[in-house]
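Notes from the 1:1 (GR / supervisor)

We went over the backlog. Supervisor wanted to see one worked example end to end before approving the batch request, so GR pasted a single chain during the call. The sequence is below; no edits were made to it. Supervisor asked that the structure be written out right there so they could see what the output format looks like.
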Amino acid sequence: MEIGAEAARGRASAGRRLPVGNRAMSGPCTRRSLIRAGVTGLAGLTLADMLRAADRAGGDAGRSLIHVHLDGGPPQMDTIDMKPDAPAEVRGEFAPISTAVPGIQVCELLPGIAAVADRIAFVRSVVGSTGQHDAFQCQSGFDAASLRSLGGWPAMGCVLSRLWGRPGDHAPTFVDCMQGRGLARNSARPGFLGAAHAPFRPDLGGMFERKLEEGMQRELAARGTGYSTSLSLAPGLSVRRLGERRTLLESLDTWKRSVADDGGVAAIDRFNEQAVGILTSGRVAEALDLSRESPAVLDRYALRGPAAARGETSDGPEATRKFLLARRLVEAGVRCVSLSLSDFDTHDANFPRMRQLLPILDAGLHGLVRDLEERGLLERVVVVVWGEFGRTPRINGRGGRDHWPAVTPAMLFGGGIRGGQVLGSTDRWAGEVTGGAVSFQDVCATLYHLLGLDPAASLLADPSGRPHPLVETGRVIRPLV
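Structure output shown during the call:
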């Protein structure tokens, strides 16, 4: 069982007593003892008591998480797993370049990433993609069918909201800034945890344009007008009036609870309480205002050189500032931020589209590494960069690469990640993993571990009361930590 240092200290020795409500439990708090207690009872403790104990045992290393989703699925052989000796119809148009770490090469369109490669772990061997064209597996480690009858598995940010969030927080635990498929397909969903732990979704349309495909426009429209969350006070609504509204809402609480207690009321109550703290503190609204940054910091995230022709559904050059936005949100107290870069779904014109997208990714990530480092945050923030799958080794007749779930590339840095290394290997065409295979759940288990949570022993209760570990099959990837 992989246990982070903070979590290990929190559960220490067998003679230590762990408080649970008004009781205490002798001995270590393990997943096995918790599940057994939920079935047979232990010293009169209920399953709810045990789950609360597991929450406290989970720990908190004081770190935050930034998820970067490469929307559409990035081509591994055109980014971090170059195959210069492969046939022309496989290797494509780009050449590899050396990095700050001898022996590690990346695509020539990624010079900024090459310069900070000693901070980054390049994972060439993520396997087990479900092939679903959204960000849910990256956000959770699970497929969409997992516990579907109970509402589905929650995204990691929603799990952190459940474990760490408090109604009086001045910033939400989880802010979802994804656009494209990640947004339209509700990838950062709370699943069986319910609406109380859904992410806050600021409307980024005025900051970053990402034109949705016609089908995704319909999907997003079907979710209703309340799908994004306003994080600023409405015109004419003062803090004093907000307090008056809160009093009015509280006067209805007893009546609401007497009518129904199906979880929906609890979600509304929690959202109302948290919204007051968020709106009155103004931290998140300020974080969303990039004009507050100095020209020098803005320049750090700027795209170098002329922008290439933009694809119809691609992010534009201003998307480099999404990475700055993530850093600002973390500094404002957000513990998990998800963002996306679109559109890597390159069934045609793969190489022109990579000439446009990869420099944006390069400038954004290079700026984020340098910024976090300069501000003393690199060890406090862990960043993962990946997509839903890779792309086909062979170039198709339209000059594109199609979906390829057999291999998914990823990059991780910060928050205790051991940078300057490559994990895993693929065959000569980057089509199959030949060594060091890791799963999506392994990556998620590693992220939980770095955040101070034991992915196997920290438990969540589904609506039926059954406890679940944070991952089912994942194991911490030891070479990364």
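Supervisor's comment: The longest strand covers residues 64-71.
Batch request approved.
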